[in-house]
Design brief:
37% of the residues lie in helices and 19% in strands. The chain is of the alpha/beta class and 247 residues long. The chain has an eight-stranded mixed beta sheet, sandwiched between helices. Helix 5 packs across helix 6 and helix 5 packs antiparallel against helix 7. The chain is globular.
Length: 247
C-alpha cells in the first residue's frame, strides 16, 4: 500500500489497474478491504478497464487511528480523499462512496466538483436532504463503541460490525464525537455532474434514497437486493457501479 501524511495522520491507500481512475471511499467501521476488495468491486472495476484508488479512511483499516475527536473535525475526512488523489497523481476521477463514504462523497461533490467526472452515492439516503444524520444517532454509536449501554439497536450493530472487521473502537467513538462539517441540502440542488444514488432495497437504515435522487438534478436512482450490510456483496451492486461508470 502507498501512503500520504495529512498533518501527522498517515492515510494508506491502494492504486491498482490502468485506465480512467475511480476513487472508492468505504463505510463506517469498515475498510477498503471489507467494503470493496472482499465484495469483488475492485476486481470488477479493473476488469472493466478502470484504475482503482481506494483508501482506508482515518480511524479505519491500516490508516492512523487518532483517539482525539478534533482529528476528525470539519472536512478532515473529505480532505484526506483529495490528498490521496494528489499523492496518486489523479487530477480528476470518478468517485464512489458507501454509507459514511457516501456522506464524504457528497461533501466532495458540492465542494470540489472540478475534481470529479461522475459520482455514486451508495448506501446513503434521504438524511442527506435533511442535512445529515441526527446528532443523537452519532452519540449513541459513540457510546456503543465505548462499551457504555445504549438502547439504540443500530448503534449496537455497528459495534458488532466494528469488532468483526477488527477496527479500533476508541477511534470510531472519537470520530462520532467530532464536529464534522454537515451537508447543505441546498448545494445538492446545484450539482451539475452525473450522479447515481445506489441503495439496497431492504436498507431500513438509510431508506430508499428517492428524495436524495430527486434533490440532485438528473440523478439516477437504483435499488439493488440487500440491506445496509449485505447490498455491497450482491452482484447487482457491482454491476450497477460498473454500468454507470461505463455509460
Amino acid at each position: 500500500m502507498a501512503d500520504v501524511d495529512r498533518d501527522g495522520v498517515t492515510i494508506r491507500y491502494i492504486d491498482e489497474g490502468t485506465g480512467p481512475p475511480v476513487v472508492l471511499v468505504h463505510g463506517f467501521a469498515a475498510s477498503y478491504h471489507y467494503n470493496w476488495r472482499v465484495p469483488g468491486v475492485i476486481d470488477a472495476l479493473i476488469a472493466a478497464g478502470h484504475r482503482v484508488v481506494a483508501l482506508d479512511c482515518r480511524g479505519h483499516g491500516t490508516s492512523d487511528k487518532p483517539h482525539d475527536p478534533a482529528a476528525y473535525n470539519g472536512s478532515a475526512m473529505a480532505d484526506d480523499v483529495l490528498a490521496v488523489m494528489d499523492a496518486a497523481g489523479v487530477d480528476r476521477a470518478d468517485l464512489v462512496g458507501y454509507s459514511m463514504g457516501g456522506f464524504i462523497a457528497a461533501a466532495l461533490l458540492v465542494a470540489h466538483p472540478q475534481r470529479f467526472r461522475r459520482v455514486i452515492l451508495a448506501g446513503v439516503g434521504d438524511a442527506l436532504v435533511a442535512g445529515d444524520l441526527p446528532r443523537e444517532r452519532a452519540s449513541a454509536i459513540a457510546a456503543a463503541m465505548e462499551g457504555r449501554g445504549t438502547a439504540d439497536e443500530t448503534a449496537r450493530n455497528f459495534r458488532r460490525f466494528a469488532e468483526a472487521t477488527g477496527n479500533d473502537l476508541a477511534a470510531l467513538a472519537a470520530m462520532q464525537r467530532a464536529e464534522r462539517t454537515r451537508s447543505d441540502p441546498a448545494l445538492l440542488r446545484q450539482v451539475a455532474l452525473p450522479v447515481m444514488v445506489l441503495v439496497g432495497q431492504d436498507d431500513v437504515l438509510v431508506g430508499s434514497g428517492a428524495a436524495l435522487a430527486a434533490a440532485i438534478p438528473g440523478a439516477k436512482h437504483v435499488r439493488v437486493p440487500g440491506d445496509h450490510l449485505s447490498a455491497v456483496g450482491k452482484p447487482e451492486f457491482r454491476s450497477a457501479i460498473v454500468d454507470f461508470l461505463a455509460d
